[in-house]
């Protein structure tokens, strides 16, 4: 498998006034030229989302060691960042491949030479399946998708009925749960999907898949019990399919970024007994972690736990005070178009006279609501002045990256030296 993506073209992209947040002097320069000019964060415009290279290195190392110690492989969800440069860092850290959510994302990934892909979804659109048939002519491509019904298999066959398919498409049977997302709603129904797959000349049965994250939204006992019961059903299904598997690669895969410790625990005995199967996590948010949802739910955050080397938040927002219309209210120049809000509002962390200046801890302030281009900063303690910048802890990487074309990367949280621009493809 090729481990190096085609990233050279990204360095030659020309920066534009259409790329929000970039310094004025960057316009017309290539990415390589700009990064070679020793840029500093203080040059950038607000609002902004900034990544921390040191924290990302920490997170890559933490997750690589954690999975390796438990016999798990990692195909992190690339839709979290849709940033091939960050996918490369994950591959370099030992990941088996990258998971994606749509065939459009698969096409983007293939354009960068990614050759190990899991589509955590069904593929039933005729146009995208015909595209996939062409890609499967590449013998180095590892590709596996999901199916949760007999109808899914039949739709794939119909779309490819007159196509010269180089090889069958690897398909994992997706097991769901009541009140969950997609997936066959019982082990028995999933077995029927598997039997239909083995009878097809278009697909090949490649294992068991599913997503446990929709079954809980916290670390309460009821959520953990629901997740554990679901994962045990996955193991039951995998055992039931034993006689249907051929000699090719087999996967059992689960794991968002919230309950992967439960996945490891439930899978542990089966991992020890079954070395043939690729026991695979798809956790994607770990590379940046956050200051909100995942900080409160991830087993590797370290807050209130005994995690020796925890994940660290590697992203922060920066916004400027543009209005102080009332004594205890300030308006910032970043809003829903710039920062995530679906899993909690940004959290004020620090303030400074400007980007690149010394930060001071900010107490007694809260973001109470957001508009498209404003955040409402309620001030009950330390005041903030017009023109000051505020550093914001953000919640949910998956709805942070999609708002930005380029995200500057600084050496560390203590440095304002910009060492990279991460390009996204949403």
The first-to-last residue Cα distance is 25 Å
Number of discrete helical segments:
11
Radius of gyration: 23 Å
The poorly predicted ranges are: none
Q: Would you report the number of β strands?
A: 18
Organism: Saxibacter everestensis
Domain D-serine dehydratase-like: 314-411
Enzyme class: isomerase
EC number: 5.1.1.1
Task: Please describe what this structure looks like.
This is Alanine racemase. Keywords: Isomerase, Lyase. The structure is a single chain. By secondary structure, the chain is of the alpha/beta class. Helix 6 crosses helix 7 (150-159), helix 8 runs parallel beside helix 9 and helix 9 packs parallel to helix 10 (260-273). It is 27% helix and 22% strand. Strand 6, helix 8 and strand 7 (203-209) form a beta-alpha-beta unit. The strands form two sheets. Strands 1, 10, 11, 12, 13, 14, 15, 16, 17 and 18 form a ten-stranded mixed β-sheet that branches. It has an eight-stranded parallel β-sheet with strand order 2-9-8-7-6-5-4-3. The chain has helices at residues 8-11, 31-35, 53-69, 84-92, 103-111, 126-135, 150-159, 187-198, 221-240, 260-273, 293-297; strands at 48-52, 73-74, 98-100, 116-119, 142-147, 169-174, 203-209, 251-254, 278-281, 315-326, 329-332, 347-352, 360-361, 365-370, 375-379, 389-393, 406-410, 418-423. It is globular.
């Amino acid at each position: 498998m090729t481990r190096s993506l085609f990233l050279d073209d990204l360095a030659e992209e020309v920066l534009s006034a259409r790329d929000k947040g970039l310094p004025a002097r960057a316009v017309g320069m290539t990415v390589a030229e700009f990064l070679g000019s020793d840029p500093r964060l203080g040059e950038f415009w607000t609002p902004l989302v900034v990544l921390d290279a040191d924290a990302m290195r920490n997170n890559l190392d933490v997750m690589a060691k954690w999975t390796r110690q438990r016999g798990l492989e990692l195909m992190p969800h690339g839709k979290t960042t849709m940033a091939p440069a960050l996918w490369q860092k994950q591959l370099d850290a030992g990941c088996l491949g990258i998971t994606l959510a749509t065939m459009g994302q698969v096409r983007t990934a293939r354009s960068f030479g990614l050759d190990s892909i899991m589509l955590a979804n069904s593929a039933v659109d005729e146009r995208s399946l015909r595209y996939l048939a062409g890609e499967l002519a590449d013998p180095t491509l590892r590709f596996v998708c999901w199916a949760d019904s007999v109808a899914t298999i039949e739709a794939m066959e119909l779309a490819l009925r007159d196509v010269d398919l180089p090889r069958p498409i690897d398909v994992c049977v997706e097991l769901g749960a009541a009140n969950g997302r997609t997936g066959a709603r019982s082990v028995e129904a999933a077995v029927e999907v598997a039997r239909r797959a083995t009878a097809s000349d278009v697909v090949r049965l490649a294992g068991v898949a599913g997503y446990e994250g929709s079954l809980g939204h916290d670390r309460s006992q009821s959520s953990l019990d629901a997740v554990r019961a679901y994962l045990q059903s996955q193991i039951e299904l995998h055992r039931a399919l034993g006689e249907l598997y051929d000699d090719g690669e087999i996967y059992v895969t689960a794991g968002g970024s919230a309950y992967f410790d439960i996945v490891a625990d439930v899978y542990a005995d089966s991992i020890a007994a079954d070395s043939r199967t690729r026991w695979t996590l798809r956790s994607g948010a770990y590379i940046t972690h956050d200051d909100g949802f995942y900080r409160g739910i991830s087993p590797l955050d370290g807050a209130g736990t005994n995690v020796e080397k925890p994940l660290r938040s590697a992203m922060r927002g920066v916004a400027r005070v543009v209005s102080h219309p009332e004594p205890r209210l300030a308006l910032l120049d970043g809003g829903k178009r710039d920062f995530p809000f679906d899993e909690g509002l940004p959290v004020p962390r620090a303030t400074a006279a400007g980007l690149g200046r010394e930060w001071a801890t900010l107490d007694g302030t809260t973001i109470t609501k957001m508009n498209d281009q404003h955040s409402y900063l309620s001030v009950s303690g330390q005041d903030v002045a017009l023109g000051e910048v505020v550093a914001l802890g953000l919640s949910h990487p998956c709805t942070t990256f999609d708002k930005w074309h380029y995200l500057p990367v600084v050496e560390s949280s203590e440095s304002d030296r910009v060492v990279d621009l991460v390009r996204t493809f949403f």
